[in-house]
Specification:
There is one protein chain. It contains 18 helices and 16 strands. The protein is of the alpha/beta class and 495 residues long. The chain has 3 domains: 126 residues, Fumarate Reductase Iron-sulfur Protein, Chain B, domain 2, CATH 1.10.1060.10; 162 residues, FAD/NAD(P)-binding domain (3-Layer(bba) Sandwich), CATH 3.50.50.60; 170 residues, FAD/NAD(P)-binding domain (3-Layer(bba) Sandwich), CATH 3.50.50.60. The longest helix has 20 residues. The protein is globular and about 70 Å long. It starts with 5 loop residues before the first helix and ends in a 12-residue tail after the last helix.
């Protein structure tokens, strides 16, 4: 695939980032335009691999036919590229922007050279699809008269809705928030995913026949059992929304918030909403501490910088990842190495640091004044050898490493433990697995007949690309359940 010697003629390139001083002044996406010819050159780098691991279980969870559409981009065959990409991925304009690209980690070229620029090529194909009119509303030739309810409008719910609508069912998506999109709308900052991109896709889906209803929290505003009676099938796509807490002294002080209380507010401001002063959370002119070094922590970091934080700090409990793969992390596994996100690059430059994140830090307690947080008390930790029984290394405090630091805003970004149980899941008497997620069989059916589940609600906290795969697989199972047969495809690695 690609040019025969493309990988020898061209080096890896990605779209340039806008200057930090400019992008911290707005909420626009970080990347600057990239000439079409550059994308074609990057497509040319794709080799004619005997086994393309980029589309294996170590690469793309959706099984995207990556070498084929890389070649099509190289040859300027955009219509074919769009059609092929949409066979496996409902929303390439999302994944091309926010997926960490496990496909690139499994790229065969990546064994000895920088991997093919797969993710940005995917984004380019999607944008070409909209620009040239290849991505447009699709209305099925016939309707089955089967009504299906989907609870939650994140990537899993939207993918499931898109697939089921294509199969001719009447699909209604219920969302508890005031706008459709779930984490795509309120969890991911604009500088990573501009909301006009989300709205553009939602418009296509709505014109294709998908019904969206906002401001309805199933299990609170509307009975879950009532929903089950009204619809032939129900698919739960509510995500993993129970944030991991930090149960230490002083946690109840004002100024300590979950990341997902902070991030949606900025996205709402971007949409023109006014946040009441009594609940407003802002980093402006504050010493901000972010606890947690993952994607959510990175999003808090970039948002805090754009809000005008005085100083920003980030602590991570775990050890700093290595610069290169270790022996126990061989190709084509996802490379567990140190990475610098766009937000970290911004912080490093603004703060004049080589690395904004401090690893191996444990929070001991918070103290405050007049009920508001003013200091964090922490300690450095170190890890010993793995426990023979659990495989987990012993964690111990480093003697004499205790410290305290002035903070006025603390954002807890330590991940999510499981879906919210109260309300809908309790009402349905839903069986849960050992981790507190919704249990299901290999056809995504829950313990309640006719009720299916997809995405983080059953999988646990994961990637957007896995959520899309889950939604597609649930749609196939629902179609089979209702009709006895289905032409909807399996999600490649969820069979």
């Amino acid at each position: 695939m690609g040019a025969i010697k493309g990988f020898m003629e061209y080096g890896r390139e990605t779209p340039p980032v806008r200057p930090v001083e400019n992008r911290l002044k707005d909420q626009e996406e970080c990347y600057a335009p990239f000439p079409e010819e550059k994308y074609r050159q990057q497509g040319a780098r794709c080799m004619d691999c005997g086994v393309p691991f980029c589309q294996s279980d170590a690469g793309c969870p959706l099984g995207n036919l990556i070498p084929d559409w890389n070649d099509m981009v190289y040859r300027g065959r955009y219509k074919e590229a769009v059609e092929l990409l949409q066979k496996t991925n409902n929303f390439p304009e999302f994944t091309g922007r926010i997926c960490p690209a496990p496909c690139e980690g499994a790229c065969v070229l990546g064994i000895t050279e920088p991997a093919v620029t797969i993710c940005k090529i995917e984004e380019m194909i999607a944008e070409k699809g909209f620009e040239m009119g290849f991505i447009k509303p699709y209305k099925p030739e016939f309707r089955t008269e089967k009504k299906i309810a989907i609870v939650g409008s994140g990537p899993a719910g939207l993918a499931c809705a898109d697939q089921l609508n294509t199969a001719g069912h009447e699909v209604t998506v219920f969302e508890k928030d005031d706008r459709i999109g779930g984490l795509l709308m309120y969890g991911i900052p604009n500088f990573k995913l501009d909301k006009k991109i989300v709205k553009r896709r939602l418009k296509v889906m709505e014109e294709s026949g998908v019904i969206f209803k906002t401001g309805i929290n199933i299990g609170v505003d509307k009975s879950a059992n009532e929903l089950k009676e009204e619809f032939a099938a129900v698919v739960l796509c509510g995500g993993s929304q129970k944030s991991r807490d930090l149960p230490v002294e002083g946690r109840d002080l004002k100024g300590i918030h979950f990341a997902m209380d902070f991030l949606p507010q900025q996205n709402k401001r971007n949409e023109g909403d006014t946040i009441p002063e009594e609940i407003s959370i802002t980093a402006n002119d504050k010493n901000v501490l972010i606890i947690g070094g993952g994607d959510t922590g990175s999003d808090c970091l970039g948002t805090s910088l754009r809000q005008g934080a005085k100083n920003v700090y980030q602590f991570e409990l775990l050890q700093e990842p290595p610069q290169e793969r270790t022996e126990n992390n061989p190709w084509p596994q996802w490379p567990k190495i140190f990475r610098v996100s766009s937000s970290h690059a911004e912080a490093n430059e603004r703060e004049g640091k080589d690395k904004i994140t401090e690893f191996c830090v444990s929070t001991k307690k918070f103290t405050g004044k007049e009920g508001k947080v003013s200091k964090i008390h922490g300690v450095k930790i170190e890890f010993g050898d793995p426990d023979p029984k659990t495989g987990r290394p012993e964690m111990r405090e480093v003697p004499g490493s205790e410290f305290e630091m002035d903070v006025e805003l603390v954002l807890l970004a330590m991940g999510f433990v499981h879906p919210i149980h109260e309300g809908m899941l309790v009402e349905l008497g839903m069986e849960l697995d050992a981790r507190g997620n919704v249990a299901c069989d290999d056809k995504k059916m829950t313990s309640v007949d006719g009720v299916f589940v997809a995405g983080d609600m059953t999988r646990g906290q994961s990637l957007v690309v896995w959520a899309i795969a889950e939604g597609r697989e649930a749609a196939r199972s629902v179609d089979l359940y209702l009709m006895g047969v289905t032409q909807l495809p399996h999600s490649e690695f969820l069979k």
